[in-house]
Amino acid sequence: MSAHQPVAAPLANDDPWALDRAHVLHPWTHFGSFEREGALVMDRGEGARLWDGAGREYLDAVGGMWCTNIGLGRAEMAQAIADQAMKLGYANHFVDVTNAPAARLAGAIAERAPVGLSRVHFTTGGSTAVDTAVRMAAFYHTVRGNPGKTGIVARENSYHGSTYLCQSVGKRDGDRIDEFRYQTEGIWHLASPNPYRRPEGMTEAQFCDSLVAEFAALIESVGADRIGAFIAEPIQASGGIIIPPEGYFPRMAALCRQHDILIIADEVVTAWGRLGTWFAMEDMFGVRPDMITSAKGLTSGYVPLGALIFSDEIWATMAEGGQRWFTTGFTYSGHPVACAAGLKNIEILEREGLLAQAARVGAYFQERLASLSDLPLVGDVRGRGLMACVENVADKGTKAPLPDGARESKRISDACEAMGLLVRPIGHLNVMSPPLIITEAEVDFITERLGRAIRQVTDDLTREGWRLG
């Protein structure tokens, strides 16, 4: 719906919609629409469903923010959180103090991570995990006698978080605004490995060749002695569910190994079951990274927690001689309540076989969504597992997008919302990442409502005079 204001008149001192509108700055606030409409107030959730303050029900095909993997309303999760809060609600995790949940969760993570990655640094979320990984890469190369080898190579259309450093490393068009400044020195961006947007007349194999050649040329021009790490999401999530061409990651990894460049797999979205595996970079793309950043599905969003997982070799290098300090961390690193939630989350994922369910239902999800490809407004439907994207275009042949003023993706999400479905509009995309507990029947609901919304918005655009090829 276009406006979120409840029907009832706001209560000056108690109404959440009015209080939010008067006092809250949301992430990625668009000031004009927020001032006009306020926010949609969510009241409760159960499984894959949400209810707003007016009692309207929604199927959450976004999974919160890529994170509600085990679903909402889990009594055993609430109990685990409450029990730990009563026993030990907080403990300092700096230098040489720990707590049992943090130690046990680190062990559980190491047991499931790729072989050789058994060290864990706890953070507050994905951004702080990425921030730490970038700094760890510089630390590692410096102690090996290469203090200039601190640069980072990322990709266009990537998202790696919202701290100053992370937004500088990531590079989505919608995140780069004139009002903010970004670090540019020592950060380089390669082309996005998006097969749908490859140059006309180029095969996917040729496209892959060009991407690898671009990386090789960058290393040659910049100098391998200045590049410390290559950071990549196995599947670019907020950038539009971009799955690279066959062979891309093994070939990029070969260049990294040849030139002593660390590989950071940003798995904040893809880890913890979303693609049917604990982690994606090795299991799905055949590359064992040096570091993995994770968050989101680690606690299924019940409490904030992130984890940087890194190799034993990095640890040994940093720790050699025993005289160095690793001077980064956070007040809430290793928070006992958050780590207790992480342990319970892993227990539920395993006990209920949710990784296997995500793989099975994810395949059905991709199959059903592919049926939307024939709609006039739809240029591409892509995804893997429980990650999916519908890209809207003005012309299927040229793949030209509509002008930004058409706002077709936001209008589609609004139409879905009015029909009890939540999808996420990003530019000319509508993306989805439902909880791992999603059923085939709910996938059918998503497909039917999303298709209906796309047809409705297509009709509206046509009546308004927008040209659709």
Structural account:
The chain is α/β, with parallel strands linked by helices and 469 residues long. 38% of the residues lie in helices and 15% in strands. The strands form 3 sheets. The chain has a 7-stranded mixed β-sheet, with helices on both faces. A hairpin with a 4-residue loop joins strand 2 and strand 3 (57-60). The longest helix has 24 residues, at 440-463. The protein is globular. The protein starts with 15 loop residues before the first helix and ends in a 6-residue tail after the last helix. Mean pLDDT is 96; it is low at 7-11.
List keywords for this structure.
Aspartate Aminotransferase, domain 2, globular, Aspartate Aminotransferase, domain 1, seven-stranded mixed sheet, 15 strands, alpha/beta, single chain
Helices and strands, in N-to-C order? Answer: HHEEEHHHEHEHEHEHEHEEHHHEEHEEEH
Distance between the termini: 27 Å
The percentage of residues in β strands lies in: 5-15%
User: What would you call the shape?
Assistant: globular
In short:
38% of the residues lie in helices and 15% in strands. By secondary structure, the protein is α/β, with parallel strands linked by helices. It folds into 2 domains: 141 residues, Aspartate Aminotransferase, domain 1 (Alpha-Beta Complex), CATH 3.90.1150.10; 276 residues, Type I PLP-dependent aspartate aminotransferase-like (Major domain) (Aspartate Aminotransferase, domain 2), CATH 3.40.640.
